[in-house]
Specification:
Chain A is built from eleven helices and 16 strands. Chain A is α/β, with parallel strands linked by helices. Chains A, B: Belongs to the ornithine cyclodeaminase/mu-crystallin family.
Chain lengths: ~325, ~325
């Protein structure tokens, strides 16, 4: 068994066309029924304000499958620790023998999540995007922006976050690597009005975007909600979309924006619902007209984890990185 | 983070009164509502005849909680590999930070499973046991016997297994460490007739013990069934027991003998059902009369894993064993 540390993983895995293409393949496997993906396992530790998610998926044709443990302990900053943590285990799909531990501390999740945002925009955003709007100013907001650069040329970025200092710091960081003007917006409404693509990347528990703000030619990727209590979109947005897509139907009906749509009674589990894999496999079409409103609900799938972890493993091994254990 | 290897773990964790007592505490926590234990996660990889289970539980008062990955790949012997594999991760319950990896290859599962058998016999077997019957001749059958020695003095062991050579080898091994006469029985029926305590420890998919064989003063621990398709007991045995106990109601209704009882329509989810933790906490009584027939259905819980993994971790750390990783 091999163990790999975050710094090595960060050297060999980046948000780029190769990883985005790998994530497209994972979605295709999911949609084609070439995946075994049980529901997310979750442990809530209320007394320490913590939550742990376990995701996994076996994808046919991949040597290894990933079991990912990711946690959020929201009192950690008081202890001087980051809230989030994560690691991936890789298990041989033919024998069950543990092959590797990727001590990525959530980095590979950041990459595969951003890559899904890029896949969403690739098939759903208008061809010409002038302004990208970002709601949120955390790490993932930045990764989403890097990923969007791989699939669309845009000139301007508008960002909104609740805490001024945090947003300003985020803008300073982004300016180093993103080739576009970056401005801070006054409100989420302002962001939506002035953008053709909007990505929400927050841990919000209530809708940040309202249905009234939608305009022709808008694409929204909502990637923040990955648990029952999280929500970024007014459920009315789901019914006003001309094309509504999600990463995984069953999971989004449990954990994503679709879950709130069900609760609000504006959609049903019987509704025709497009998955990202239907787009990547060519079975369904994404945006077909410039004026359409498109929405994508991402909850993050074990299939993406297995794809990115396999990619990382083979890159690391080919460079003789990592440490071998008994 | 620390990583511990199997040989070190085997040095410090044994089937003994200390570990059995630790497993009793875990059941008490479960029954008292001091545990968060999500349903078992399962990945079936049919094309390689493999299955992977993920179990976890947070127990209040324990520093760390365990996430256990265990697998069975039944074509492995053809490749010269053992079918089973397993490892445990220990995560800090206050911060979510990974604390340790126990590369135990299933050893701690063997110990905590045998310990549950001992807990079952402690509260349910008659005080005087002359003969213990074992159905099955795998590793776990042996561990169950070691564990029973800690809670009852018995003079004789009767074992039944399908493959003669395997049973004979098992008997030779057991004779080295078990202070009792060990004989091979002709049939499961023979075992039941001549024993006061019977433990079934097989991967059987159909009932091995029949209701007609029950006799006053018998205790049965059925520990083999931990998946929907596994079964060791004729469901009629469940209704003919004077005291019917399980390790975890919800899990046994899904995966254990109780599951087959539900399917056969002989029990319902509303039936009064005693959990092992009701016995260890003193809330309910086990056997109250010598002539009673008692049955215990074990599926193996994440709570046991968290208890045994904490115990192992503290023993290993106090001896400065293991390897520190970044």
């Amino acid at each position: 068994m091999n163990i790999f540390k975050q710094s090595d993983i960060q050297k060999v895995v980046k948000v780029n066309r190769e990883t985005i293409s790998g994530i497209e393949d994972a979605f295709t496997s999911l949609a084609n029924g070439n995946a075994v993906m049980p529901p997310v396992m979750r442990i809530d530790i209320e007394e320490y304000n913590g939550e742990v998610d376990i995701k996994t998926a076996y994808l046919k044709g991949y040597d290894l499958f990933c079991i990912k443990i990711s946690s959020g302990f929201f009192d950690n900053p008081k202890l001087g620790l980051p809230s989030g943590n994560g690691m991936m285990l890789l298990i041989c799909a033919k024998t069950g023998v543990p092959a590797a531990i990727l001590m990525d501390h959530g980095y590979l999740t950041d990459v595969r999540t951003a890559a899904a945002g890029a896949v969403s925009a690739k098939y759903l955003a208008p061809t010409d995007v002038h302004t990208v709007g970002i709601i949120g100013s955390g790490n993932q907001a930045g990764y989403q922006l890097y990923a969007l650069q791989q699939v669309r040329d845009f000139k301007k970025v508008l960002v909104y976050g609740r805490t001024n200092e945090r947003v300003e710091k985020w803008v300073r960081n982004m300016k180093k690597t993103v080739h576009a003007d970056i401005d801070i917006a006054e409100s989420p409404k302002d962001v939506v009005h002035r953008s053709q693509v909007v990505v929400t990347a927050t841990p919000s528990k209530e809708p940040l975007l309202q249905q009234e703000w939608l305009h022709p030619g808008l694409h929204i990727t909502a990637m923040g909600s990955d648990a029952e209590h999280k929500q970024e979109l007014d459920p009315g947005i789901l019914t006003h979309a001309d094309v509504l897509v999600c990463d995984h139907k069953e999971q989004c009906f449990r954990l994503g924006e679709l879950h709130h749509g069900l609760e609000a009674g504006v959609i049903t589990q019987e509704d025709d619902m497009i998955e990202l894999g239907d787009l990547t496999s060519g079975v369904r079409k994404g945006r077909t007209e410039d004026g359409q409103i498109t929405v994508c609900d991402l909850t993050g799938t074990g299939a993406q984890d297995t794809a990115i972890a396999n990619f990382a493993y083979h890159e690391l091994r080919s460079r003789n990185m990592g440490m071998k254990l008994d």
